[in-house]
């Protein structure tokens, strides 16, 4: 696929029915068989976020992608020379983003496995948090907000591409309580089944 002036080659799962957890690692992390393949798909919101990152101001900013999946947005930032860390809870996400970095002739994106429930002090602080389509369960908004609170610099930004699953209002409320203001824009969700959906790009600043 093409983002900006660059074409990206991506290793993804062939469909959303694939499942393989022979040692129960994913299950112990709370990943059900129904959710197992979500990390390995190129979701329309991930394309929207990647396009936003192609022109995003990265100067002097440390950036964390939360729930990176196959890591397209992080690859775009890596190509631009950003200080980016990709993170996910899925046990295969690290291997996929490393493979995709190599496919595109890029240095491996720095990766940290991150369980939003468990604090990870060694992760450090960030100036920018980015995520796409990570609010598909009601509790995810509060968990993501908690990650931001734990790891945000005083003047931080949060950029979330959301297809309109209905849980973004909770994230807005929680981040506003932490001093963030919000702007939002709409963009076409390329690759959705009908080609007609429009997602929102939520941009929080403190």
Automatic annotation (TrEMBL):
UniProt superkingdom: Bacteria
SUPFAM superfamilies: S-adenosyl-L-methionine-dependent methyltransferases
Keywords in alphabetical order: Methyltransferase, Transferase
Record-level GO BP terms: methylation
KW rRNA-binding (keyword) present: no
Molecular functions per Gene Ontology: methyltransferase activity
Name this polypeptide is given: Methyltransferase type 12
């Amino acid at each position: 696929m093409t983002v900006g002036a660059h074409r990206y080659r991506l290793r993804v799962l062939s469909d959303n029915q694939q499942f393989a957890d022979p040692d129960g690692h994913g299950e112990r992390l709370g990943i059900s068989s129904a959710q197992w393949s979500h990390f390995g798909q190129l979701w329309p919101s991930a394309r929207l976020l990647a396009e936003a990152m192609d022109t995003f101001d990265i100067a002097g900013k440390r950036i964390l992608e939360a729930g990176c999946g196959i890591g397209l947005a992080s690859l775009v930032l890596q190509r631009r020379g950003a200080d980016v860390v990709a993170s996910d809870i899925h046990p295969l996400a690290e291997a996929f983003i490393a493979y995709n970095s190599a496919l595109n002739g890029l240095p491996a994106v720095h990766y940290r496995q991150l369980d939003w429930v468990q604090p990870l002090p060694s992760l450090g602080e960030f100036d920018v948090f980015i995520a796409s389509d990570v609010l598909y369960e009601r509790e995810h908004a509060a968990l993501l907000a908690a990650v931001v609170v734990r790891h945000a610099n005083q003047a931080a930004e949060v950029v979330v591409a959301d297809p309109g699953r209905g849980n973004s209002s909770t994230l807005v409320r929680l981040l506003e309580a932490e001093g963030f203001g919000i702007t939002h824009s709409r963009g076409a969700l390329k690759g959705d089944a009908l080609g007609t959906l429009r997602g929102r790009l939520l941009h929080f600043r403190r």
